[in-house]
Design brief:
The structure holds two protein chains of two kinds. By secondary structure, chain A is α/β, with parallel strands linked by helices. Chain A contains eight helices and eleven strands. In chain A, the strands form three sheets. Chain A has a five-stranded parallel beta sheet with strand order 2-1-3-4-5, with helices on both faces. A four-stranded antiparallel beta sheet of chain A has the order 6-7-8-9, with helices on one face. In chain A, β8 (about 140-145) and β9 form a beta hairpin. In chain A, α2 runs parallel beside α3 (about 60-70) and α6 crosses α7 (about 175-180). Chain A is elongated and about 55 Å long. Chain B is α+β, with helices and mostly antiparallel strands. Chain B has three domains: about 15-150, 2-Layer Sandwich (Beta-Lactamase); about 215-300, Helix Hairpins, CATH 1.10.287.130; about 305-450, 2-Layer Sandwich (Heat Shock Protein 90), CATH 3.30.565. Chain B is built from ten helices and 14 strands. In chain B, a hairpin with a 2-residue loop joins β4 and β5 (about 120-125). Chain B starts with a helix and ends in a 17-residue tail after the last strand. Classes of the chains: A alpha/beta, B alpha+beta. At the A-B interface, α4 and α8 of A face α5, α6, α7 and α8 of B.
């Protein structure tokens, strides 16, 4: 069972994080104090950390900076009420792996934690990805379903690659937008939906088993059944 | 500073009025002096003629020719004319040819404007004369020319003609010089006011150490700006707090609804209701997010994050992302770039967000099978981005309002939208000192343009004064 450490001084938010991550099968420890959080993160063997930006005693930025300086590579999801782009950049530069703005939906938070868990667990860089009968050749940038080559635009390939890499996980539209296009704002429902729709029409041809699923109210998911 | 502007200044006007009054006063003063001098000199002449005539009246008739000859010989400057006439007006003695016309024969001094007729010819100089009856019945006339008085009058007139330019020219020069400094101060204030008018309420008018009336005025304006800034801050703070405070419980509400949705079977009749409720919560959250985003953008006074970036590449991204959306609505959407664009200084993410919002709006409001064009051009001042659609357009009366928070034009009522897209674009444009222009294109649709000039060109690394 993966272990998560939640460093969060607001008890309501902490309760939500702990409940959601526990529900998704993680063992979650919680501390409200920055210094205590830093020591636990340094000494404990955690797979992922959610870290509030503003904490008593030692703030979130200092915690992650110290962890990275001390050689601790546990993936960190920074959570902050500060949504400024600069804050985001600062958080990521200090060593955070992802950044989430409060208030957040538990789904989004959990999805991001799961992506971090997955990314961290990934071994050397793959040259090919495979889910069910869908194959992605990352060198030639070619995708095949059941051996038949799919005609994908570069953007569609990038989108598919992201979905396949995170297969089995729910991805919110903000996460997709960030990962595939690199912009950090919510583009609204339609845009991502349309892109997913097009990709779906190319991947999930009539007669084949649908790989891409829409999770109502949350996001999208690619998984083998 | 143009000279014409100098003459328009208050100081110049004051000096001109003062100079004019001073000139009038000079004229009046000299006029009085002139009048008094003339009067005095006339009196002197009159007295003299009077004395002469009185003297000759008392002289014995027999000695009169001799006395007149002596007087004539003593009149070296030849200013006195005289004549002795018999009762018929015939000249008996003297150098006057006839009794001067218009001279009353009443023994009093009278002016002779046209001079006198002398024996040797007409003497056209103004004069004053007297005619007295002698006991013998003859008429004795003395005329003294008053050219001296006229000469004095001419001297005073000339003095006045000279003194007028001497008063007026230094006055004008003084006005020019004196009004330069206040005008320069006003220009400085005008420059300082520009950013304030564009919405940068942190700026203040410059004050000089002289504490003059301009400083007094600037001080008053600055206190007003302090107050406006404070009030704006309060209003914005209240808005932000409401948006922020409501967002957290809304997020929780949505999470709980989502939890409920997970536990409800898809075929349960309540599932649709839950989904609709979630959609409403999402719409509310989107609106709050956009509001806070605008507020956040308005707070971003810094330009430290600005960099030179490839505008064309950013626009290609927009096209790549929005083309499928347009195609789904069977709208033709294309990037029209007439010429290569130079690097633009700014935040590429924010410019992307701004253009995305414009394109998103255009696609949203254009009917199916319509056309949306993202056009770029390079104008003399910098790149220009036009988003042109053939939808219903934005009415001229709505154009100022659509850039404000929470406004949606009449045609927007039927479309989903938060009415905040253009407000976000405005905030981003403001941050970059770009201009947002809303117009109508020839076909009747909307043409929304982002004029990227005020952004410093890539070569200029320096920030404008006070920025940064």
């Amino acid at each position: 069972m993966p272990r998560a450490l939640t460093i969060e001084d607001d008890t309501v938010t902490a309760g939500e994080i702990v409940a959601e991550l526990t529900r998704r099968g993680l063992a979650v420890d919680w501390t409200a104090n920055g210094r205590d959080g830093y020591e636990r993160a340094r000494d404990g063997d955690y797979d992922v950390i959610t870290l509030d930006r503003m904490l008593p005693e030692l703030d979130g930025l200092s915690v992650v900076t110290r962890l990275r300086e001390g050689g601790v590579q546990t993936p960190v999801l920074m959570i902050s009420a500060l949504s400024d782009v600069d804050e985001r950049v600062r958080g990521l530069r200090a060593g955070g792996d992802d950044y989430l703005t409060k208030p957040f939906s538990p789904d989004e938070m959990a999805a991001r934690v799961e992506v971090l868990l997955r990314r961290h667990g990934g071994g050397p860089r793959e040259t090919a990805l495979r889910v069910a009968d869908l194959e992605l050749d990352l060198i030639a940038r070619v995708a095949r379903r059941g051996g038949v080559e799919l005609e994908l635009l570069p953007t569609e390939f990038r989108l598919l690659e992201f979905l396949v890499r995170q297969s089995g996980q729910i991805l919110t539209r903000t996460m997709i937008f960030e990962a595939v296009w690199g912009y950090h704002f919510d583009p609204g429902t339609n845009v991502i939906e349309v892109h997913i729709g097009r990709l779906r029409r190319k991947i999930d041809t009539p007669g084949s088993i649908a790989l891409i699923r829409t999770v109502r109210g949350s996001g999208y998911l690619l998984e083998a059944h | 500073m143009k000279p014409i502007d100098l003459w328009r200044s208050g100081t110049s006007r004051l000096l001109l009025v003062y100079g004019g009054l001073f000139a009038l006063w000079c004229i009046a003063l000299i006029g009085v002096i002139q009048w008094d001098t003339q009067r005095y000199l006339s009196n002197v002449v009159d007295l003299k003629i009077d004395h002469i005539s009185e003297y000759f009246q008392k002289i014995d008739r027999a000695r009169l020719p001799e006395a007149l000859a002596v007087t004539e010989s003593l009149d070296l400057r030849d200013v006195i004319s005289h004549g002795l006439f018999d009762a018929q007006g015939k000249l008996l003695l003297g150098n006057l040819a006839q009794i001067p016309a218009g001279l009353p024969l009443d023994g009093k001094v009278h002016p002779l404007e046209h001079g006198v007729q002398r024996v040797e010819g007409h003497h056209p100089v103004r004069a004053r004369g007297i005619a007295v009856h002698l006991p013998s019945g003859e008429l004795l006339v003395f005329v003294r020319d008053t050219s001296v008085i006229d000469t004095v009058r001419a001297i005073i007139d000339r003095a006045m003609l000279w003194s007028l330019p001497l008063v007026v020219i230094p006055g004008l020069l003084g006005a020019l010089l004196l009004s330069r400094r206040p005008l320069r101060r006003l220009r400085e204030m005008e420059t300082a006011v520009q950013p304030i008018m564009r919405g940068d309420l942190r700026r203040r008018l410059p004050l000089s150490p002289r504490r003059d009336e301009l400083d007094l005025l600037a001080g008053i304006v600055n206190s007003m700006l302090d107050e406006i800034e404070r009030l704006m801050g309060e209003v914005k703070g209240v808005c932000d707090n409401i948006a922020h405070d409501l967002r957290t419980p809304l997020t929780r509400l949505r999470a709980q609804l989502h939890g409920l949705q997970r536990e409800t079977a898809p075929d349960d009749p309540r599932a649709a209701l839950i989904e609709a409720t979630i959609a409403d919560a999402d719409a509310l959250l989107d609106r709050f997010r956009a509001l806070l985003r605008i507020s956040e953008l308005e707070d971003l006074h810094r330009r430290a994050g600005f960099d030179d970036f490839d505008l064309a590449a950013t626009l290609r991204h927009v096209v790549e992302i929005y083309t499928p959306l347009a195609e789904d609505k069977r709208i033709t959407f294309a990037l029209e770039a007439t010429e290569p664009l130079p690097p633009l200084r700014g935040d590429p993410h924010l410019v992307f967000e701004a253009v995305s919002n414009l394109v998103d709006n255009a696609i949203k409001f254009t009917p199916p099978q319509g056309r949306v064009r993202l056009r770029t051009s390079l104008e003399r001042e910098g790149p220009r981005i036009d988003v042109i659609d053939n939808g219903p357009g934005i009415r001229a009366c709505d154009r100022a309002a659509v850039v404000q928070r929470f406004y949606r034009g009449a045609s927007a009522q039927s479309e989903a939208g938060q009415g905040l897209g253009l407000a976000i674009v405005t905030a981003i444009a403001k941050l970059h000192s770009f201009r947002l222009e809303i117009a109508e294109c020839d076909g009747g649709g909307a043409k929304v343009s982002l004029l990227c000039w005020a952004a410093e060109p890539a070569a200029a690394q320096s920030l404008p004064a006070g920025m940064g």
